[in-house]
Specification:
mainly alpha, elongated, 181 residues, 0% strand
């Protein structure tokens, strides 16, 4: 079983290297790892929280693309939609590969935030959205770092793979938030 998993991982990486699609190889590797063993209750809880936050991130950022009047904020929102959509696909794929049904909607906290932001416009919208992005990414970095610090399985591995991007998002959000205050 382990030899097959290693061979499958090596094949996925080789194919990715030849096609230039490393993300696809990571996703294939993660799927194989999930299928090789069960995901713990803690990992399931992490996946649920991460997926709900990711869904919220995409929906909040789609709102920002529509409502923002600041080009920097709109570009940031576009990046968040792209990056979090890709991350969500990996997280959902991992949950499904482990036999779990992932959430498809954001949690109540994020729904309330979406409602609040949808009532705002102009500079106030931009300020509130970016302040929220700083807070959300601080929480995401903490959540993913905690999960990645216990590298015992595929969920921890994926958290570690996604963590650098979340840290980059946080830095970008802080810089933009500081510039529009």
């Amino acid at each position: 079983m382990r030899k097959g998993l290693i061979a499958g991982t090596a094949l996925a990486l080789a194919l990715a290297g030849s096609s230039g699609d490393i993300a696809l190889a990571q996703q294939a590797t993660t799927m194989q790892l999930a299928q090789a063993g069960k995901i713990s209750a803690e990992d399931q809880e992490f996946l649920t929280e991460a997926i709900q936050a990711g869904v919220a991130e995409v929906q909040l950022s789609e709102l920002a693309r529509e409502k923002s009047q600041d080009e920097q904020v709109r570009q940031f929102a576009e990046r968040m939609v792209q990056d979090h959509t890709a991350a969500n696909q990996q997280l959902v794929g991992l949950a499904e590969a482990a036999g779990n049904t992932p959430p498809t909607e954001m949690d109540q906290k994020h729904h309330a935030l979406h409602q609040q932001l949808s009532q705002l416009s102009g500079e106030e919208f931009d300020r509130q959205y970016m302040q929220g992005q700083v807070q959300e990414h601080e929480a995401a970095v903490e959540l993913f770092a905690s999960e990645a610090n216990q590298p015992t399985g595929p969920v921890d591995q994926l958290a570690g793979e996604l963590l650098p991007t979340l840290r980059q998002h946080l830095q970008m959000a802080q810089e933009i938030s500081d510039s529009i205050v």
